[in-house]
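Much of the work behind modern protein science is quiet bookkeeping, done one molecule at a time. The protein below has been through that process, and both of its lines are reproduced in full.


***
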Amino acid sequence: MMDKIKIHVMHTGYVCVSPDLPFGGENCSAIKASGIFGRKENRLWLPVSVYLIEHPQGKILVDCGWHRNMSPNGTLDKAAQIKSLGSLFLYLVNQGKIEKGAAIDEQLKRLGLKTSDLDYVLLTHLDCDHANGVGLVKDAKKILVALDEVECAKRHSAVRYKKKWWKDVSLTEFDWNDTEGPVRKSYDLFGDGSIELINIPGHADGLFAVKVKNVDGKFVLLFSDGGYAEKSWKQMITSGISLDRDKQKKSLQWIREQSMDANCLESLANHDPSVIPHVILL
């Protein structure tokens, strides 16, 4: 077993959203969060993060970011993005771009890895900026998504989710097998507590954080869209997109407690503009 777990924090492009989407708070309506009627000049460009975990038991990718086909030339491309997402509405809510070389398969190649080298891909939830790029890594050995999230995507397929993003991709649905987290639902990936997928519902039903822990009990928390930045848990600011406000607040409170734990080395949101790509040794 190697001495250290290595976590590569990478950005796979950017997403442009209304400021109310990430930081709208509990009284924000879904329409306001969408930004469709808001001022374009007030929009925020936020990074779209993914994480490669080099673990003694395999190589694990957390989320996939955007697909290259939605930004073929590395710039914002309205027509390409609408075609890739299959939705004009989703383009209006969140425009995206991926610089050349920043798509997940391109970044893995730069690290000397093939997508088939991935033992696991963990989809924290199925929103477009997390799952649209899954086709780029479809030959990974196993691609996991929570059963709760698959059911959530079925219920909200008319607007929020599009099955075409994972068409021809073999997804493995999992149910919770452990009891860590705000709603006592989690999945112990290796059965040793080193990689725990922890349900943090609210933003999406099957959303999970990934807690990566070493033998000394030190850990890194990758909390996806449980909050959109460090200030989310520090100031308890929920996002404007929520399926259940009470669960969202409960999840964010849990993220806050975990982030303030003395054993927490880093606590990272998926779209925090203050986070720059780096490597964590755990």
User: Anything to note?
Assistant: Residues 6-275 form a domain with the Metallo-beta-lactamase; Chain A fold (CATH 3.60.15.10).
